[in-house]
Specification:
Aspartate Aminotransferase, domain 1, seven-stranded mixed β-sheet, 447 residues, alpha/beta, Aspartate Aminotransferase, domain 2, 2 domains, four-stranded mixed β-sheet
Length: 447
């Protein structure tokens, strides 16, 4: 699209997430409206939204049930008194969310987004151990390639390298292991590779001293590393390690939560329940900033006592328990449950995977990964050497937008996660655009 002089001037007065403005100006996208599965730019051109904005609008843009819930709430109350009370709609949301969480994870702290849910969890865990007889436990073990948010604690837990470098030194107490995708070519099977990589967490805990390690923090499916999808056994090994060393297992389900993987949470998809789940993104379907921390109810007992004990959770946000956010989130959960959208994610996800598998005929796809409608495709130079092909991913970024397609693209992989309102016909439309964009990119890099 072409920018007006006014748009160019204003773009020089703000920042765009994780990209240089000069590069953005070469192929800008300024959106004006969105509905269902599509965006429209300020020139009226339509774009298929293959990732719900950024894994957020999983009921499609402008879902009527969610918007109606927000409108109704606007007429009642939009801000509770955080230091004095709580809105009834926030309690309603706690009840509704607690009905769909796995295990006993029905003690819920609401926050303003995914990064805040991770930040709140890190603080909760450290305070929890101080108040339950293990004050030396403060370290967290996570994975390289993992992304847990942009605040300082969440960033320190992330393993995203250059994204953190400008802000170093990082906070202390955060340790990393490599994900199974890093070692996969060194093992005879994916299963054995996962066993090895899961046990790396135990090695770190033992050598750091278990009395200093508080938690293991992982994304069940690692987006930033290329939709890394471990085995179910991987998570069972992590669960066993945590139980053995009194370490809490924490799932960052900011991306995987709320129906995408074929269950309400990926914890249910992989069949292993953590001690804490962090959530955000699609919780409010992209309407009002919203996140939540879901904790085992028995753990919350450590924060309840007489006033003089001073054991309350020493954490809060102005917009935590936002009435508008809670109203939107309650509507999202109720819609997913009532319409069985988790079941739809499984069937639609199988169809999506089969369509993406067809891309292998072009000789540059190593693997299609993921669960439900959350799928990633790894790009390679050829399927004999499996050598990386970063030039292809860079070209695909341009051709996708040229063809009216918005998806998550890295130089070595791309990801799609269509909204759960999509039909098989919509998946066909999306995958046709993906294939055309991939072929256009291949023409450019092979000139």
């Amino acid at each position: 699209m072409k920018l007006t002089d006014r748009q160019k001037k204003l773009l020089r007065r703000t920042f765009l997430d994780y990209q240089q403005t000069s590069e953005f100006l070469e192929q800008p996208l300024v959106v004006d409206r969105a509905e269902g599965l599509y965006y429209w730019d300020t020139e009226g051109r339509r774009y298929f939204d293959a990732i719900g904005g950024i894994f957020v609008a999983m009921l499609g843009h402008g879902h009527p049930r969610v918007l109606d819930a927000i409108r109704d709430q606007l007429d009642r109350i939009t801000l509770g008194p955080p230091m004095h009370g709580i809105a009834q709609v926030a309690l309603d949301f706690v009840e509704v969310l607690g009905q769909v969480t796995p295990g006993e994870l029905n003690f819920i702290k609401t926050v303003s987004g995914g990064s805040e849910s991770v930040e709140a969890t890190l603080k909760f865990v450290r305070q929890y151990f101080k108040q339950t007889g293990s004050p030396g436990k403060y370290k967290f073990v996570s994975r390289y390639y993992g992304y847990h948010g942009a605040t300082f604690g969440a960033m320190a837990a992330s393993g995203t390298g250059v994204r953190k470098t400008p802000f170093e030194p990082q906070m202390g107490g955060f340790l990393k292991v490599l994900p199974p995708s890093y070692y996969r070519d060194q093992f005879s099977s994916w299963e054995e590779c996962n066993r090895f990589c899961a046990r790396l967490f135990e090695d770190v805990i033992v050598h750091e001293d278990p009395e200093t390690v508080a938690g293991i923090l992982v994304e069940p499916i690692g987006n930033t590393g290329g939709v890394i999808t471990p085995t179910e056994e991987y998570f069972q090994i992590l669960r066993d390690i945590c139980d053995r060393y009194n370490v809490l297992l924490i799932y960052d389900e900011i991306i995987t939560g709320f129906g995408k993987t074929g269950d309400m949470f990926a914890a249910q998809t992989f069949g292993v329940t953590p001690d804490i789940i962090c959530a955000g993104k699609s919780l409010s379907n992209g309407t009002v900033p919203m996140g939540a921390m879901m904790v085992r109810e028995d753990m919350a007992d450590a924060f309840y006592g007489p006033v003089e004990a001073d054991v309350h959770f020493a954490h809060g946000h102005t917009y935590a328990s936002s009435p508008l956010g809670c109203a939107a989130a309650r509507a999202v959960i109720e819609e997913i449950v009532e319409q069985d959208l988790t079941g739809k994610a499984r069937t639609l996800g199988d169809y999506l995977a089969s369509r993406l598998e067809r891309l292998k005929q072009h000789g540059v796809v190593r693997e299609v990964r993921g669960k439900g409608v959350f799928r990633g495709v790894e790009l390679v130079r050829d399927t004999h050497t499996m050598a990386p092909f970063p030039e292809l991913g860079k070209a695909l970024k341009r051709t996708a937008l040229e063809n009216g397609l918005v998806m998550r693209i890295d130089p070595s992989w791309f990801a799609v996660c269509p909204a759960l309102i999509a039909t098989e016909a919509d998946i066909d439309t999306m995958c046709d655009l993906v294939e055309k964009s991939l072929l256009d990119a291949l023409k450019r890099v092979r000139r």
